[in-house]
Structure formats: C-alpha cells, structure tokens
Predict the structure.
Amino acid sequence: MTDPRPPRQRHVKILATLGPASSTPERIRQLWEAGADAFRVNMSHGTPEQRAGLISAVRGLEAALGRPMTALADLQGPKLRIGRFAAGSVRLEKGARFRLDSVPEPGDAHRVHLPHAEILAVLEPGHRLLLDDGRIVLGVREVADARADCEVLVGGLLSDNKGLNVPDAVVPMAALTDKDRSDLALALDAGADWIALSFVQRPEDVAEARKLIGGRAALMAKIEKPQALASIAGILELADAIMVARGDLGVELPPQEVPGWQKRLVALARAAGKPVVVATQMLESMVASPTPTRAEVSDVANAIYDGADAIMLSAESAAGQYPVEAVAMMDSIAREVERDWAYADQLGLLKTRPEPTTADAMCAAARAIQATVGARAVVCFTTSGSTAKRVARERIPASLLVLTPRLETARRLGLTWGVHAVHTRDVSGFEEMVAKTRRMALRHGVASAGDRLVVMAGVPFGVPGSTNVVHVTRLVGDELKRHRRA
C-alpha cells in the first residue's frame, strides 16, 4: 500500500467526525482532500449498521487512495439522567428546595426521580449537582433514605430526562455500559483502529477496556470528568492516547479552569510520548455558518501552539451545513500557525527528558543530528510504532516518514504529530535500509537531491522494540534521475 502523494504540509493532525452530513464515500473523500487525516465515528448516534458502515467507508477510502486510513470509534459511556415530570417540565426558582429520590413516579416542582441508586449512595452535603449541561445547579443539603434534599443554586426551566453531572464525587459506575460493550465488539469487528473510552474516572476504567479490546485496537481515554484529572498519571500510563473533551469537562469544572487544564494535559501526554487530541466546539459556529468566529480561530490556533497531536471537529463535520469548509478552515489555520516562527519556540519550551532506554537515547540523538546537519526528513523503520511516537514526542521540525510492515501500525499512527506512515515491506539488511530510505523519501516527496536524511531503525531488523541505529544519508542527483525515469 504505497500512495505516492507527499505528506500534508503541516504536523498537527485533523480528526473529523462522520455523520449525516458526511456519510457517503464521496463526502468522506472530500473531507480527506480538504485536510482530514483521521475519521471519528460517534457510537452514540445511528443504528449499529450505520456505524459499521461508516467505518467500512473509511476502509473503502483507504483502498481507493492506496494509503492507510485511521478510524476511531467513540463509545457513548453511561448517561446519567433524571426522570420525567407530570407536566413535562418545571421551573425551579433560586433558593427553593428540590428533592432527588428513588421513587419511580413523575416529578413536580418539589421532586423528581433519579434512576441511579449509585449516585444517591455517594452524595454528601455540600456536593453540587449539575442538570441540563450545567444550566441548573443544585446544592445537596441532606442525604437520607435513598433521597437527596437540595437547594436550587441556579434556577431555570427543567424538563424530562435531562442529563445530570456529579462533579464532586466519584460515581461507583463502570465506564462501559452494556451498550458500550456491544458497540465495542461491533467497532472491533468492523476494523476500527482506535477506541475512545468515555466516562473515565480512574485507571481501573482504562484497564477494563484494554482487557476487552485485547490488542485489536489502540485505546484513547477521554478526559471529561474532574475525577480523571486527579488520577491522570495512572490513566495516561494505561491508555495509548488521551482526548481533552472540553465540552463535558467544562460542565463539571469552572469554565475558566479548562484552558489551563488543556495546556497541562497536552504537556503531560507529550512528555509521556502519547498522542493527545483536543476536542469539542472548536469551530462550533460553522455548523450553520460558512465562516468561524475570530475567537474560534484563536481557540484552534492555541491548541496547535500548545503542541496537540490532533484537533477534532464534532458536529461541524458530522451534522453541519459546511463540513468540507470546516475541515478546510481547520487545515488553513494549522498551516498558518506552523509557519509562524513562534510555533517552534513554543514547542521548544517543553523539554522532554528521555527515559533511560536505548530508544529514547536514539530519538534524542536524532533530534540533535537533524538540527545540526539540517536534515530535511527523519525516516523511521518501525514494527509496533513505538519508535515513531517517541520521535514525534521530540517535535522535530522536519518531515517524519515512518515505514512499517504492519498495516495496523500505519493506521494507528494517523493521530500522531507529524507522522506520514507508509505500509511497506520490511528490510533485512543495512544497505537495503539505506537504499529504501532514499527511494521512499523521493517517492513520497519528503526530500530532493542534495538533502540529508536521518534514518532510525533496529538491528536485527523486524524485531519490535530494538531501535538502536541512527544513520545520516544524503540523496544524490543520480538517484533523483532514476526515480524520475521509474
């Protein structure tokens, strides 16, 4: 599988969500041509057949283009909701008393059913409850006999089955529901490369999902609950990547705290050498408008300046009126940011200290060599993809061409900063490695005659985790002529 087209002229990746506005093979290809590098399927929406069909459409694009494509299945997770009201809705006044209880009867202005005994079991006086995405705020005053008596801190109109957030307690509820388990099996059978796990509160949530996935896909932990922030080190250790899900995180956290956490999470993921996606409401106005607001452009740009591996479009590409334009706008913002001299300076502010391993030593050396000799590209031979991610962690300001004999590795690297992954046969010797490096660099347009290349590989070849070689080679004019004749 060798697509001869050159890599994107940017390092950050764009993850576009598929949906009603982008469900046909023709539209998905348009999103890719506009700049999408990977595709998200929201398992909360559509029928199982429709969700599997979207993943299949990504595989169809892969076959048509002849290069690896990345599909991410985003699990819904538990949905905490209140019950129904006899009148369909009530208006809660600030300062009034309101009860959540276990009685399965329609509610009124004084009470409503909460069909989650787990929540009632962990609530304590002083806890806050956020209803309808935080539009209604209750303060717990007393908890007894499977009920919580609350005071309305922020009032408003509350209708049937609105969502509930519990920011001040760890809810003893698994991140995977029965629906999620079914959706997970469907996504794996359909060939998803990444699984995004919602409602992550503890490392144990990630461990459970990893066990179920069984190595058939990479696992991304969505950071959308304050409880996850308290356990981020353990979560990051077990996950293959994280997503900064700012929408849900901004409901349970004071919104002014979200930007700081975004920066910290991006820095932590980069230091760990794992991809990080910044998501939610990035170009929200483009759901209904052909152009974004200036504030949205700045928001996208800041995520790129922070060093995110990927930035995500949600409703903009899934259900909006301008899905292709939204991808193109995000692509243009990314290119402009990466042309800014301050971008490289910003990335350099975070020093990634190498771990005491041969692979990390080689990656640090590759960065120093590239900067010293001005190499046009770094070419990495990898089986598992771990070396490519460690090189990407260095944020080397050059093309990163990754050659791998495993198609699943090439697909999973579609969310890693700067990586242009190519599925190709492995090499068996040093001279073959050098010759293939030059040939593939020319074929994929990452270098020209006279350019230097930094090559990373492991000897013996084909053994995962054996990166121990850094080599510098130069393309000569005769090679370029042979490539043109070929």
